[in-house]
Amino acid sequence: MLIPQGYKQTEMGIIPKDWKIISILNIAELLSGLTYLPENISEQGLLVLRSSNIKDGNLSFEDNVYVNCIIDKNKYVKKNEILICVRNGSSNLIGKCALVTKNYNATFGAFMAVLRSPIGKYLYQVFSSQIIQKQIQKNCKATINQITKADFKNFYIPISINIKEQQSISEALYDTDKLIFSMQKLIDKKKAIKQGAMQELLTGKRRLSGFNSKWTEKKIYEIGKVITGSTPSRNDKYLWNGSLHWVSAQDLKNKYIFNSIEKITDKGAKYCNFLPAGAVLVTCIASIGLNAIARVPLATNQQINSIICNKDFYNEYIYYLLSYSRKILIAIADKTAVPIISKQNFESMSFLLPEDKKEQRAIAKILADMDNEIEKLEIKLQKYKKIKQGMMQQLLTGRIRLLD
Predict the structure, then answer these.
(1) What DSSP string runs through 97-138?
(2) What average pLDDT score do residues 306-331 get?
(3) Treating both helix axes as pointing N-terminal to C-terminal, what angle do 130-139 and 120-127 enclose, rounded to 10 degrees?
(4) How far apart are alpha carbons 240 and 291 in whole angstroms?
(5) Other CB atoms within 10 Å distance of the CB of residue 362
(6) pLDDT digits over 40-58, tens only?
(7) What b-and-e string marks burial along 120-149, b requiring 16 or more CB atoms within 10 Å of the CB?
(8) What integer is the mean pLDDT of 168-182?
(9) What pLDDT score was predicted for residue 91?
């Protein structure tokens, strides 16, 4: 392998000659989290940061826990420290982290750890990069869903010995973080506006100009024909891996369904009810209330009830109506080990909606335009994130230098 001039080969790959490989604990102090008892939890008191308080590399305060016990001031989180999830029931949460951007009146829980270092902003970028995340995946197999102190001792990073270069790298990446964060906040704001619009438009609280027809209550079976899906036998290989779309809850991630993860054969289709494009799909078992619109003919599993709307109802409007009503769907589900809404109960659900199909279309168009705007912003957000990943790969290994 040809090594460029000014670079050297190391156990972590090719890095600049004036960089070094060091253990992360040589430049940071590791603090373990607080263990507290159920009786210590209170409505007010000291905030305990947990994995749920980390969202996309930032601190989030939507799900908080407070304790009333006395905590060593050394265990309060401080500006430029790195909060890390080190233990969790889900392996994909291990190693997720956030930079603490200011001093908080808060500590952190037993499943968390904090790295405290004079170069915390730089270390956060390294820890959230593949440099450390790959080491977590590789070195932590012995401890199920956990990073131990011994694991931290074995985390190594390449780093410039030039403090100004460290600062330039962290500032460049942090500026990109701020751009990503501002875009995420804009998306969240747009989603909140859409939710407010749904609340007003889908309940008749606010009427669109030019429409004054009455709204009436309709049960789902009056809106359209309801079809429950089915699953061909898994024991017959000739029923599966064909070319026909067979949808389950894992496919209901976007508004429209053009494809499915699993496919069935013509023989498998004999065990299913095929739906036309335009059918509205709703999950009524387990993950209650996920919904989408079929854009191609397809079949579904028994977890999904589908509505083939009759001529008086616009399928896009029914999609938004069910999206807005997801909490109602969850509330009426039978509280069994696996939540379920029977076909009979689903068909009997009633909604107030406009009789004029043109009004249904007009409302759906407003909400669809909002969805399109949000989708464009989310595409831009993913682009920014990819740019950030490329910058990390180049800057944190010294392939691109930020020197005066």
Answers:
(1) EEE--S--SEEEBTTEEEEE-TTHHHHHHHHTSHHHHHHHHH
(2) 97
(3) 60
(4) 24
(5) 18
(6) 888 888 999 999 999 888 8
(7) bbbbbbbbbbebbeebbeebbeeeebebee
(8) 95
(9) 65
